[in-house]
Amino acid sequence: MEAFSFSKDSGNVRWGNTLWLNLLRAIAAGIVWAIFALIVNSDSPDAPSWWSLPFLAPIMYFILLPIYYITAKILTAILGDIIEGAINLMTFLCSFAIAIGDPLVFILHKFKPEFVPVDEYKFMNFRFVIMVLNEEGVEMNEGSL
User: Fold this and answer.
1) Number of other residues whose CB lies within 10 A of the CB of residue 115
2) Tens of pLDDT along 4-54?
3) Which of 37, 133, 134, 137 is least crowded, fewest Cβ atoms below 10 Å from its Cβ?
4) Predicted TM-score of the model (pTM)
5) Number of H helices, E strands in the chain
6) Residue 134 burial (CB < 10 Å; 0-12/13-18/19+)?
7) Quick check: 75 and 83 in contact, CB under 8 A?
């Protein structure tokens, strides 16, 4: 399998399915983060609005994704190798924030595979974005477009 290349493989991307899969991942991550926030702040009367996380996580994901991508490309072009380590760390942290919901999507895929538009779905996918492609033999995106 060869790695995903946006310039080469963008014509093979099933955009609707890609958006749907990443929306599912963001909702699932929001549910997990809401449970975590509820457990951590269960005694506090001023607990944050944990119930809103499943709704806010997808919105924040799709708003911050292009901002992060453009900023990372500009900083890498200007500063090169100096900033690359920090960008890799930020990519990992953002990937972790989304990947925390992957077990829920994995379970959904096992019970209702028609809801998850891929043939196989791993228990954990440490990728910021998963691209759904028309053809086989292209590896999923490794964190940055």
Assistant:
1) 12
2) 666 676 677 888 888 999 999 999 999 998 888 888 776 665 655 777 788
3) 137
4) 0.78
5) 5, 0
6) exposed
7) yes
